[in-house]
Write a structure and sequence with these properties.
Length: about 140
């Protein structure tokens, strides 16, 4: 098993436009990722991703407009940052880069090797499949 999930896609817009429309604020991110976000994007501070009854507390670790957004969370079954040891947090990073045809978005989730062995494979599997489902929604906002 690998310890990192990586996905890439190209969107037909500039990095600045992709940032504003899909990453630069809780409202922008929630147009495609969670149903809604509670809280604001403040470095080092928590916010909550909400899908129906499921809630995942995250901590913003990087916010570079038109370039990168990163946060830490516990993958899978956790609801708060305290549900498992802090050493087991994974890091999700969205990197935006200009490319021919628009903007390449690279999503990585790393740190699975730090998760307790008893739940590591399950957490990786949940998120590996989950990212396919979630990222499939992102290009829909850019189709004609």
């Amino acid at each position: 098993m690998t310890d990192t999930i990586i996905r890439e896609l190209v969107l037909p817009a500039t990095p600045e436009a992709v940032w504003a429309k899909s990453f630069g604020s809780p409202a922008a991110l929630s147009t495609w990722f969670p149903e809604r976000i509670e809280g604001e994007f403040v470095l080092g501070e928590p916010f909550v991703l909400v899908w129906g009854e499921h809630r995942s507390q995250c901590r913003l670790t990087e916010f570079t407009p038109a370039r990168a957004l990163s946060y830490q969370w516990h993958p899978g079954d956790a609801f708060t940052l305290d549900d498992h040891p802090a050493e087991e947090l994974t890091t999700v990073r969205f990197m935006l880069e200009p490319t021919e045809g628009g903007t390449k978005v690279t999503m990585t989730e790393s740190g699975f090797e730090r998760i307790a062995e008893s739940r590591r494979a399950w957490a990786f599997g949940q998120n590996n499949g989950g990212w396919d489902e979630e990222l499939a929604k992102l290009p829909l906002a850019y189709s004609a």
